[in-house]
Each structure stands twice: as C-alpha cells, then as structure tokens.
Sequence to fold (233 residues):
Amino acid sequence: MASTLERCKKFRARRVLKILRERLTVRDEDFAAVLVARETRDPFRILVVTILSQSCTDIAAMRAYKALDQQVGIIPSKLRKANSRAIEQAIRVAGLHRQKSKAIKSLSQIICDRYSGNINQIIDLPFESAREKLQELPKVGPKTADVLLSILGLPTISVDTHVERVSKRLELTGSRSKYEQIRSDLMHLFNKKEYPIIPLLFMAHGRNYCKARRPLCPTCPVENWCHYSMKST
Fold:
C-alpha cells in the first residue's frame, strides 16, 4: 500500500503534468528526433539524428542530418563505405564533427557486420535486452537509447539535463539521483501512455522557465507546486 508521502508525490506530479500540458506548446521542430520520426520510422535514421543532437541544438542537428542524407545517404552500407572527411564535412554544423563522424561510421560498420545492416534485429529484442544492446553501440548511452526506444513506442523515459533539473527541483526524484534513478522515479509517477510526452514537456519547461542559472520562478506555471521556488523566495 502506497505511503502518504508517495501518494502526495504522485498527486503533485499529476498536477504538474496537467498544468504543463495546458501552458506549454511542444513543437516537432524543437526536437530533432521527433521531427525525423514524423518523416520515417527507420530506427537507424532516428538514432543517427539523436547522436547528431548531442551537445548541440536540435536545429543544428537537423541541418547536419539533412546535409548528411543529401551528401552521403543515411544508410548503414553507405555510411560504412563513406570517406570520413565527407561525413565530417556534412555534419560540421552540429559540432564535435570528428567524434560524431567516427561514431556514425563505426556504428554503421557494426550494424552491417553484426546485424546484417538491419538495426531492427536489436529493436525487436525484449525491451531490456534491446536497451542494453543499443548502449553497446558507439555514442549511444542510456539517454540516446531511451530517446530511440520511446519514439518507437516502447515504455521508457529519456532524461536529459533539463529533465534532470526540473525533476529534482520539483522533488519528483532525489537531489542526488543519477540517470537510472531519475528515469525509474518518473516512470513510477506517471502512466505508460504519458511516458513519451514527459521529456518533451520537461525539456520545454526547462528551456522556457526552469533555467539552470536564472529560473523564472515568479512567472513559472507550476510555481505553486515547486519546492525549489518556495525555498528561493
């Protein structure tokens, strides 16, 4: 039986979600992986744009993705054979282009050699096995794996810096929680059907109100449900 504290936390989480749904607008163009998923359900393409979006804006990631598709082609067999400099040049706008080029080329080779060029051989595994296998790929950590799996309709929540900050300030997770604990806490507080929208809303909230250095607490739509705001006033 749930404790009073746990019931209160769930109630607060539901109120926060309701308010954020009403007050925030989530646009596809703000999230590169979501935008690509609207165009194709190809998990390899979604994975590539998610890697490109690491440490850069989603706008830059989309520009790099489109350039890579036009100049090389986002297909494992083509990327495997492509000249590294060609990949670097195509994705330069996304930053860290040498590291990302190396990762994308290595990723493509692994998909071709181990999985016959078909990443669905990983995606079709049982959920935990798929998540584990994805994280064995270059530049694919838990967040990137969860972004891909969530977009494909599997039950998980990705946690970026915005999601982590918002979750901790709202005390939906512990102040010292790491990635897996934050993910687990959020999955416990919300319903499975809500998993895909949670990171998008929390990211939007983190960008617009719950900023890292100067959060806009006085105008925050969930100020009345935020312990961080109460402490800072």
About this structure: Residues 85 and 101 are 8 Å apart (CA to CA).
